[in-house]
Amino acid sequence: MTDSPHSPEPHPRDIAAPESAPSGDYDEAGVPTFEHVRDKIEGRFATAIGGTELAEESEAGRSIAQQQADRDAAARERIEQIRRSMRGEQ
């Protein structure tokens, strides 16, 4: 250890040791393995995709999608109307 006040190193008793042996998804230091982290991310992603698909398949989800499509069509028509008026067309 150095006596420099700018980079103090932790004393061994300051580091918390895991109280029990880590499971197969963690290494000896208690850090999750790459496979464990990847599996958790893939699980959360699959849950999010599934929730989105279920929401889109419901009546309310279809209604919202139709409302969005109607707004998009109205917006495209309004933009085209503005462009025609700027070109001097009616």
Key structural traits:
90 residues; mainly alpha; 0% strand; elongated
Describe the structure.
The protein has a domain at 31-87. The mean pLDDT is 81. It has two helices and no strands. The chain has helices spanning 34-57, 59-87. It is an all-alpha fold and 90 residues long.
Condensed summary:
With 90 residues, this protein is mainly alpha-helical. It has helices at 34-57, 59-87.
The helix/strand series, from N terminus to C terminus, equals HH
The best one-word shape is: elongated
Rg, Å, rounded: 29 Å
Q: Care to count the β-strands? A: 0
Range of strand content:
under 5%
- The unreliable regions are none
For the biggest sheet, the summary is:
none
- Give the distance, in angstroms, between the N- and C-terminal Cα atoms: 82 Å
Structural class: mainly alpha
**Oligomeric state, counting identical vs distinct chains:** single chain
Average pLDDT, to the nearest integer? 81
- Proportion of helical residues: 55-70%
How many helical stretches? 2
Strands, helices and their partners?
Blueprint: H1 34-57, H2 59-87
Helix pairs in contact: 1-2
